[in-house]
Amino acid sequence: MTTLLPGWKEVLDKTPQPAAPDFTKQLARLPKKTSKYLEAVTFVDSDEGLDAMVQLACEKPIGWIGFDTEFTYDRPPVIVKKREVVDVRSVHPLLLSISLVEPVIPDSWKVYQFVVDVRQRDLARRLTPLFQLAVPFVAHFARAELHCLWQLQLPEPHILWDTWVAEKALYLGLYNLNDQEMKYISDTEEADHWQSAKVAELIRYSLVDTCRRYDVPYGLAQDKEQLQQSFLQHDENDPFTPQQIDYAALDATAAASLFLPQVTAATRASTLEHLIQIEMPWTVVNARIMWNGVRIDPAMRERVAQAGPVLLPELERKLKELGIGNYKSHPQLQRYFESRNLLHAFSKKGGYSFDKDQIKNLKHLDPAIPLLIEAKRIHSLTSDMILTPAFDGPDGRVHADHKQLAADSGRNSCRHPNLLGLDRTMRPLIVPDVGHGIGEVDLSQIEIGVSAAVYGDERLTDMFNRGDVYSAMAQLFFADNLPPEDVVLAGAAFKKKYSKMRDQMKTCTLGIIYGLTPHGLSPRLSVSLQEAESLQRRFMDLFPTLEKALKDASHYGGLRGYAATHSGLRRYRSSTAKISNWESNWLRNHPVQGSAADVFKAAGIRLDKLYQQYAARLIIPVHDAFVFEAPIEHLLMVAQLTARVMCEAVQERFPQLRPQCEINIDHSECWNKDGMALALQEWCDQALKAA
DNA sequence: GAAGAGAGCGCC
DNA sequence: AAAGGGCGCTCTCTTC
Question: Hey, what CATH topology would domain A21-163+216-269 get?
Answer without folding.
Answer: Nucleotidyltransferase; domain 5 (3.30.420)
